[in-house]
Amino acid sequence: LSTSWMYQQSLSTMLSQQSALSATQNQVDTGNRINVASDDPAGAGQVVSLNHVIAANAQYSSTIDTANTRLNTEASTLGSVNSVLDNARTLALQAVNGTLSASDRNSIASQLSQMRDQLLQLANTTDSNGNALFAGTSTTKTPFQMDANGVVSYGGNDEQQRSAVGAGLQVASSDPGSGLFMSIPMGNGTFEASAGSANTGTLVVGSNSVTDLNA
């Protein structure tokens, strides 16, 4: 009986060592200490939680990259808009020269018309996914349309797109075209100076400010 028991114990020990060796070999092959939940139930639970964190961080990183790309495209587009407006301002100043002929003014008018079309094209810029940059959250719409009379209308909305860049953290990743291109303040943004209808003389406006907006 004792000899049989000793053989049984030896066999059990060998099988246990073989199982441990197999588990160790599996860890070496996979590079993972935990391959199935039974390897370490508590550790397996932590692995699942960490995998969720890693997946969320990867998604946030992708969202941040997309938002950066959109904002960089927007900044570049608005830089081009400013350049076109500067050129239009220069032409407008040239047009007030009394020595210009009608042909010269017609040429300036033609150039300004082309600049208007260029501005319309810039305002309808899309991102790398084909979504409109300046339509608010209505990204599948073409935000600006011009009718046969040259009147431009805005078809987007006034909302900013926002991107999730962390747990409970969002940042704006676009600006609606209504505020950038349509809601342009008159004058200096606080008041507008103009000559009265009965004034047939001249008007000179210098440096002015408002001290009491309620007056």
Q: Categorize the overall geometry.
A: rod-shaped
Count of helical segments? 4
Distance between the termini: 113 Å
Give me the count of strands: 4
In round numbers, the mean pLDDT is 83
Largest sheet: 2 strands, antiparallel
What Rg, in angstroms, do the CA atoms define?
35 Å
SSE string, helices as H and strands as E: HHHEEEEH
Structural classification: mainly alpha
- Residue ranges: pLDDT <50 for 5 or more in a row? none
Topology (elements, then pairings):
Elements: H1 2-30, H2 41-95, H3 102-123, E1 144-146, E2 152-154, E3 162-166, E4 169-172, H4 177-182
Antiparallel strand pairs: 1-2, 3-4
How does this structure look, described?
This protein has 215 residues and is mostly helical. It contains four helices and four strands. The chain has helices at residues 2-30, 41-95, 102-123, 177-182, and strands at 144-146, 152-154, 162-166, 169-172. Strands 1-2 form a two-stranded antiparallel sheet. Helix 2 runs antiparallel to helix 3 (102-123). The termini are far apart.
